[in-house]
Design a protein that fits this description.
heterodimer, A: alpha+beta, five-stranded antiparallel β-sheet, 36% helix, elongated, B: alpha/beta, Rossmann fold, Cytochrome-c3 Hydrogenase, Chain A, domain 2, 2 domains, five-stranded parallel β-sheet, two-stranded antiparallel ribbon, globular, disordered C terminus
Chain lengths: 142, 351
């Protein structure tokens, strides 16, 4: 066992955070459908009792789509069993959780390719045409 | 004069993608206890932010505060915030020593006059300057010389913020806090024994992001982290409301995770973020491990009549009302637990 392993208390200390959060999610889904307004809930701001976060995660379940991001550590972006409700978990390069959110949106922003990265990728692709590849280098050497 | 890179340039040079940067900004918003809607603004500000120079002074301390920050794990997102400052002087961490170290401090002060941050851990002995010196310089002289050109001062840990353990009765060294001496600069207190590393980095991140210091309470602590008591955010609070208390460390109440008030928990009068930010990468905090809160982020915590004495029997002023709450349970509990919170809100407004 290490510090990175989740601590599971044998005693359920429910503080009652799960039910109000589910209600908040329902209201956020209403706003998404009626006004196309996304909502992000930062789970770090809530005083979860031991086991409550797991209870929330189990209640929301898993849906059709899970994506893994590898940037400054792993992140998991998973659509829950309720379409439009996403469980987003950011970890650092040491594997520790640095952010945990519920996003109520059609697609979390972090999944989108970002303009800066698109531009940098285009430049790299362009450079690969301008510099001779290994085959051309071999021919030039003959 | 050397060109100071922006944080955006530093991250780009490290090969961090835009997605990685957005993740960094989301973690920073969470760190600063700001709503996720602030992430785009944080991204814009951080991209343009230039790394500030930081001079860290260690006086009468145990190095626990530095350990708290540097042992948090590495490399991390919050580590990136720490990396994005220029730590120009820290005599425990830097390779240079003696005259070379002092020359680095003076160079940082001259190059960044009026802009650098001074971080201090440890209290300052005033009974005799010889009790604590660095390179032959008394703590008092080094502090006053260094803060003169500083933009702001951050007192890290309860010793720097309030005198801490060196200042405990009978205070043999005449230990005082930074704010007892520095009167003409903004002083942010980040108390705790040690302070939560995330809170230390949050103050740096706030300065880095918005170029300003956070809102402070009457004790000079950032309201975002010290605005509520441990008791307010404790997951054992429902047991307090129900009048269910552990009487000893091995009774039925202790095994069932009931409230630790009667075992001396200072949660109701202690303002800190342990219950939500937690320790060891969010693993737990003392109460979750079955131990009462010691109240280490409050002034004079060492002299409050014993860690295992209930607030009702300790010499801390506001215990009577809270003791009544413990006895009477629900009704009195709700009212008395808000007493200290209301007092805090009042002092914030007055401050």
């Amino acid at each position: 066992m290490s510090l990175k392993d989740p601590i599971r208390s044998p005693i359920p200390f429910s503080r009652g955070n799960v039910r109000p959060l589910l209600n908040e999610i329902i209201h956020a889904l209403d706003r998404l459908l009626s006004d196309d307004e996304p909502t992000v809930i930062d789970l770090a701001s809530l005083p979860f009792a031991p086991g409550e976060l797991e209870e929330l995660e189990q209640t929301l379940g898993s849906g059709e789509l899970t994506a893994e991001l590898d940037a400054l550590g792993k992140s998991v972006i998973r659509e829950t069993g309720y379409p439009g409700v996403w469980w987003v978990e950011h970890r650092n390069t040491g594997g520790e959780v640095v952010g945990r959110y519920i996003e109520i949106t059609r697609s979390p922003e972090i999944l989108m390719s970002q303009d800066a990265d698109i531009g940098a990728g285009r430049a790299r692709l362009n450079d690969s045409f301008e510099s001779p590849g290994p085959e051309l280098k071999e021919e030039a050497g003959k | 004069m050397k060109t100071i890179p922006t944080l955006g340039e530093i991250l780009q040079a490290q090969g961090v993608s835009r997605r990685g940067f957005m993740k960094y900004c989301a973690a920073t918003a969470s760190l600063l206890a700001l709503p996720p809607a602030m992430v785009p603004r944080i991204a814009q500000a951080l991209e343009q932010a230039r790394r500030p120079s930081v001079i860290w002074l260690s006086f009468q301390e145990c190095t626990g505060c530095t350990e708290s920050l540097t042992r948090s794990s590495s490399p991390t997102l919050e580590g990136l915030i720490f990396d994005s400052i220029s730590l120009d002087y820290h005599h425990t961490l830097q390779a240079a020593s003696g005259d070379a170290a002092e020359a680095a401090r003076h160079a940082a002060m001259q190059e960044n006059m009026g802009k650098y941050l001074v971080l201090v851990d440890g209290s300052i002995p005033m009974a005799n300057p010889g009790y604590s010196t660095i390179a032959g310089i008394s703590n008092y002289d080094m502090l006053m010389e260094t803060v003169e050109g500083a933009a702001a001062v951050v007192a890290i840990g309860s010793c720097a913020a309030f005198g801490g353990i060196p200042g405990a009765n009978p205070n043999p060294t005449g230990a005082v806090s930074v704010s007892d001496l520095v009167k003409d600069k903004a002083v942010v207190n980040v108390p705790g024994c040690p302070p939560i590393p995330m809170v230390i980095t949050a103050v740096l991140a706030q300065f880095l992001t918005f170029g300003q210091l956070p809102d402070l309470d009457v004790h000079g602590r950032p309201v975002a982290f010290f605005g509520q008591t441990i008791h307010d955010r404790c997951y054992r609070r429902p047991f307090y409301e129900q009048g269910k208390f552990a009487e000893t460390f091995d009774d039925e109440g202790a095994r069932k995770g009931w409230c630790l008030y009667k075992l001396g928990c200072k949660g109701p009068i202690t303002y800190n973020a342990c219950a939500t930010v937690k320790w060891n990468a969010g693993t737990s905090f003392p109460i979750e491990s079955g131990h009462p809160c010691l109240g280490c982020s409050e002034p004079g915590f060492w002299d409050k009549g014993g860690f295992y004495n209930p607030i009702s029997t300790a010499d801390i002023g506001s215990g009577a009302g809270l003791a009544g709450a413990a006895v009477a349970g629900v009704a009195l509990g709700a009212a008395a637990a808000t007493l200290s919170r209301k007092r805090q809100q009042k002092t914030i407004k007055e401050g």
